[in-house]
Records
---
Amino acid sequence: MLKQPKAQKIVQYIVLSVIILSITAILIPMDVSAYWDNLGGRPALVLTDEDENGDGATFLDEEGNPRSFIGDYTPVFNSIVNNPNYGDERNFVTALAIDQDIHGAWNSNTITAEDGKVYLVRIYVHNNNPNGEDATATDTKVAFSIPTVSGNQIEVGGWINSDNANAAQIYDDILFQAPDGRSFYLEYVYGSAMLYNNGFASSSGIGFPDDSIVTNASSGGALIGYEDFDGKIPGCFEYTQIVTIKVKVVYDHEFELDVKVRPAGTHDEFSESIDAKIGDRVEYQIQFTNNAANDIQENVIIRDVLPENMVYIANTTYLYNSNYKDGKQITPDGDLFDGGINIGSYEPNASGWVRFTTEVTDKSLEEGDNVLVNWAQGMVKATIHQDHAKTMVQKPKITHTIITGLLCVLLVLCLLAIIYLLLKLRHTPR
């Protein structure tokens, strides 16, 4: 028999469930439809011989054969089909509208997308190996994949990645669907990513340090963990993690916002991301377009939210549109990063651009790769749309810097030695 959490641990787990918005409340039966893993189908695990405290449980594989974890410390994520607190773990991406009762059932398959409504999307993360810290998953990351294109149905994908798990990568998704066939897109609510667990993210949870869980999905997303954002998740129920984000449904009948970036002082094409070094200047462009067929969009407000380690260069904000083809300097330009600036009114299909320059600094950059995400918002009356652009910055590691410095010192010493020898030979009597 395999040992499950003690009674007090089960109580802690139940308390956690209540604290974190009843995220692990009993769900309606869920149909597995979209799950995937890099193994091409990981074994399903069935929890048996379960008493009310979870003691004395065993695991069966999908063929009904006992699955022994004795002496096996390999992490296995989200493979239990009958988790008493959740249901089928393979269906680990679920959602509901934020105005719904979070104590009720979360939808695991299809969400009816209502215009302007905000939805909470969650990922359930459970290392099924019962061997606790001996079966700790490492470099565990979670990512949400949110398409940037419009459509009458959009899949939000969820990824769990771990370098030592079996399988190393698992996937599930949930479908947002228009009830009337109209086109819409999903807008991530920046800063909304939250982590909940029994460890450092207990009580009311903790926000992620940045939005890489969405903006860096192609590289695995964001680290999670039990005691820190360190990627370490021990095995068993007590170490379960919950990750949530918010997305907003926006139907294609109002306006569009597009944010791009390029190296400052160049005529390069603006793009969604660029590479830069500390001290480099980059130029951002925020484009507003009125997509309405007949309506004029009046008093358009543009606001920008600069990431940490990116500093605005004063007096570089310019507005371009049909009235200011050569650009008009916006003053005071600090308003762009506060309440926003009014860029005027726009006829159907008309556009306006706001451009400004920033500089990459090193206030809190980490060694290695850094992703600086600049968010912008466009506001017309009560409607807000947003978009982002990324600047990729690499900070040399200390060891590399030290070695480079030592090599430079050595080179200088060698040059001085050569000069000294040449001077000495010059003054030596022949």
---
Amino acid sequence: MEQLLHYVWKHKLFPLTELSTTQGRRVEVIDPGLHNSNAGPDFFNAKVKINGMLWVGNIEIHDKASDWVLHGHDKDERYDNVILHVCGCVDAEVMNSKGEYLTQMVLSVPDSVINNYKELLSVDQYPPCYQIIPSLARLTVHAWMSALQTERLSQKTEAIEERVKRCNGDWENAYFVTLARNFGFGINGDAFEEWALHIPLHAVDHHRDDLFQIEAIFMGQAGLLELDTIPERYQKDALNDGYFAKLRKEYQYLAHKFGLKPMDYKLWRFLRLRPQNFPHIRISQLAYLYHQRRASLSQLLETYSVKDAKEVLATAVTPYWETHYTFGSTSVRNDKNLSPFSLNLLCINTVVPILFAYGRHRGEEKYCDRAFDFLEQLKPENNYIIRLWQQCGLVVENAGDSQALIQLKKEYCDKKECLRCRFGYEYLKH
């Protein structure tokens, strides 16, 4: 209930009856103040008139007035500038640390707000606010989508900054880790990030001109050059075709030379994975990309269009993998280039966040602006989240829109944070 009281106060969704203190003095809310999500009073710099006199200060909100003492505010100087204690129920007189009694007011949540909030929390259909989506003003939708888009980019930036720290401040290395993670295309994202952190790029650089040696290091560090990682029915063929043994021998030499230790191969997931997404294929594609010197941050920063970015990331597999998905298992010849769909996702999840994060790091807006431009140029993702919003009547025009909706679902809908959502606000007041 306290969350609802916060919400009603913040948005001035007051009952139609006149507001008054517990002593019967009339209250007029001029400005509810700035909502504080950190320690201290709930709202800063509010302006209220009490019996016609203007008061400027802080507001504290509780479900019950006695919570003031329960939370220790009566001994906390930070709460001495509270001009009004707003409560769902006033069950006690309370004082600040100076021994001064607080002016208190009972605030009732309108029945319509309570009922609408209960509906949002209980409805089985996603999104729960689907009924009002078609009636929302275009400006309202655009403003919220823009905010969500920026919020999602900021979260991805934080993740990239953490990788930079893990890579001892090396942005080139952090970019490679980010790129590798997104080559996992969701299901193997964590495994690919762990793998990339096991790749000593300074060592690989010495062998950059030799694609076979790059692939040996990449496959070996993934833990995929051990015989027991191959399904038993393919082990004999893998040994007979010679490529597996040749790669393993080369890796053993390079591992000894550079003191390499592979990751745990059990981190890789194969269940219900399309063969095109097998780690062997994606690692071979990354090896080829690295060999072609198109896996560097400097090249990415020189892309000025989505087309440029896709050309940089376009890759294929080494010859062996044109006819294999795993060691020993022969398949129909396929170049196994990255599909347009995959390139679109890599631009959304790698190129755009890296440009934005690097731009913020360097204080160069041109990279941040380019990130937003790319989002507008890229096609939207086509997944169940996006389709459900489209079925509600929401227009999804580009990748910026789809990223915003993914952020909305993960950070608001899934967490039942309707009170923080602008669509939720529209639903509560309708």
---
Amino acid sequence: MSNIKVTLENTGIDKKELTKFNRKVETIHKELHAISDNEKEFVGWLNLPTNYDREEFAKIKKSAEKIRKDSEVFVVIGIGGSYLGARAVIEALTNTFYNICPNRKTPQIFFAGNNMSPNYLNDLIECIGNKDISINVISKSGTTTEPAIAFRIFREMIENKYGIKEARKRIYVTTDKEKGALKQLSNEEEYETFVIPDNIGGRYSVLTAVGLLPIAVAGIDINKLMYGAKVAEDKYNENSVKYNECYQYAVARNILYSKGKTTEILVNYEPKMQYFTEWWKQLYGESEGKEGKGIFPAGVTFTTDLHSLGQYIQEGKRNLFETVIAIENSATDITIKRDADNIDGLNFVADKTMDYVNKKAMEGTIEAHITGEVPNIKITMDKLDEETLGELIYFFELACAMSGKILGVNPFNQPGVEEYKKNMFKLLGK
């Protein structure tokens, strides 16, 4: 049973506009599935919930168990899709203050290699101190500058702390199946190694070993995560816009784009979802932002950002629309007590729950923004758990592929990335 529902009633888009895309959607759907088994095409994520490597999956769980037993700290080294997906899921499904929570029974999890700030790395090393540590370096090539620098530093740190032989048992590598500098090093040092599939690009890789190992270390049930993705794979296999809500979202985005709505703001009302927004931004930004085209992906966490960006969204330039993620059932809640003196004037919400107030804030904000000519797409999640999040991940991946194809770009490459890499290497004397 699906845990996700899409609502387009506040977009100003009628059914006739959607159905105009029927033939195009059917064609793209067939094309995507026709090439899904081709290892040279980057659509391995499409059938991943069904066809994932069970043997590697078991190895991931075994390694995660070992890390949980012998490590107080687990450092995930990667950039872009090599860390955003894992971080998104971990932050969404664990305690908001995971790393400092006294009831935590799993290692602290930190992320490195996603920037080149010496302050960040030195602060992290200071924070780790003398704690037992394991690391997971994630890189297809092993030569991407940011994670390569971080790995060099942490590898030396671990080898100095444990000796080379013991260090090998605390270094986990996720890289190419056959080639690259990191694969070569991993073979030489006999590190425990996991595979980044050739037919899955970085931003689509969260449900591979790239994301699953760190997620499993955090104590999250990756079986349920994959089950949720499988539910989505089955549900969104329909090629009709009329019946496929995932494709409705993809088409709606393109219709709004054609009407001058060039910025999409992903809105959530749950701070746990902040990094999910960051993952979504990379997914859509790298997939669609090319050839002078693409919707700019932005994100806000309400009600926090209502007090900073709310004014602009309400009355600024009318080139934007919102996609609101609403969580129907909160995992926990707090009832607001009545105060006899009512000094703060809050007794109007007395005996109500915080979740109730949060939802009313959402309803009021959506209504206000619609009045302010901001079209609203609403994606409702039943609850925030492994299965539902797995479903949502697959939903956005498939919608992204469809949306990019409708736009007329290749949603699986990122040629612009190479340009700034080339300039950076030149300036550094490579």
---
Amino acid sequence: MPDDLRDPKPVKIRCDACPVMCFIADGKSGACDRYANHAGELVRLDPLTVIQSGAKAVAFLDQGDNAQDWDGDVIQGGRDFVTAVGAGTTYPDYKPAPFIVSQEVEGVDMITVVTEGIFSYCGVKVKIDTDRHIGDERAVVRVDGEAIGHVMTSEYGSKMLSLGGVEHLTGGSKKEGRVTCDALLRLCNREPVEVTIDGGVAMVVEAGKAPIINGVPEKLMRVGCGSATIGMFAKQWHGHVDEVVVVDDHITGVLTEHEAGKGLDMTPSGIRVNGRRSTPGRYFQVADFMVPMVPIGLATGRFGNFMNAELWGRASDAPWATVFPTDPLQIARHPSQLYEMLLEGVLLFLVLWVYSAKPRPAGAVTALFGIGYGCARTFVEFFREPDAHIGYLAGGWLTMGMLLSIPMIILGIAMLVWAYRNDERGVKS
């Protein structure tokens, strides 16, 4: 059969109603099941709302001085009234104007622009400060018998509820969606909401107030921080014990060294705990882990400066001196960008990498970076042309780069001394 007599191969068409942008074959629908390919034409599967002529519908009436009783007639009641209210958008997108319905009324083009609020995909997390068991993880949370969410894993000593979401708001029954929507609105408006948890408790939750669990208001808060525990109960322990040791997953400490113990004039017991005494030590751990990678970024940036022929050095007769095309004087200069790349980038990276290969006190690697960067930048400033709008600050050699590097060096040295003096990796007595 000649090619020109064969049926053309069905062509897929793209639906761009949402970011998924499905390619839909003839006779098939997209992922949302709202649009389909009908003989090469994109059609909407869910119909619009059509109010037939003569149907009972209340039109928008004038208010105030122009108020009038409704005469039972819809606007332009002699014709069908087409609307897209409730049609919404396609999953998963939210657009300012996703759907437009148009019709002609007495020679005038009338359009209805419809949007679907993003509320249909929203959720609310409820944090409940209690030490009581409220329900197993993944247990269903209900309001008026309808599922609106589930119990999450406890976080920082508090129970957590995950409520709402598209499955409860739009994926279940209409009653489930209405109840979920109403519960979320009330919670967000600081109104009390009574919930029940499958296999757990009945509870009233309200923003800013203690939960009421099985009819009993919660009076005890679960303490999730060792330092807070020391401070809150120091007065009760004082006079009954010589020392209190608190150990949890991110802090270790003793009462007599805590500010609460000092405030009570407790005599130091001499006990030192093998562990990190405060959370800031963990911050330094993260910084020490990341800092050795910083020189790589610095080296890349300085090489970019060289390739862009910017931030060049002072005049030089060195064999490797470079004439930069952007230099109006067209004289040979120090390639100070490469000096910085080698010192701030390559050399500093190697120093930090070797230094951090062995366990160091928290903050020591970060301190060494500050010292190394400050020294490298100060050295290169002797070869770098100062910014034209600033020039030399003093003596024909002091630059702003040097002046800004000095505090970094001093701070780095002070931090290094502090790190080693407060090294808590060993046991002390």
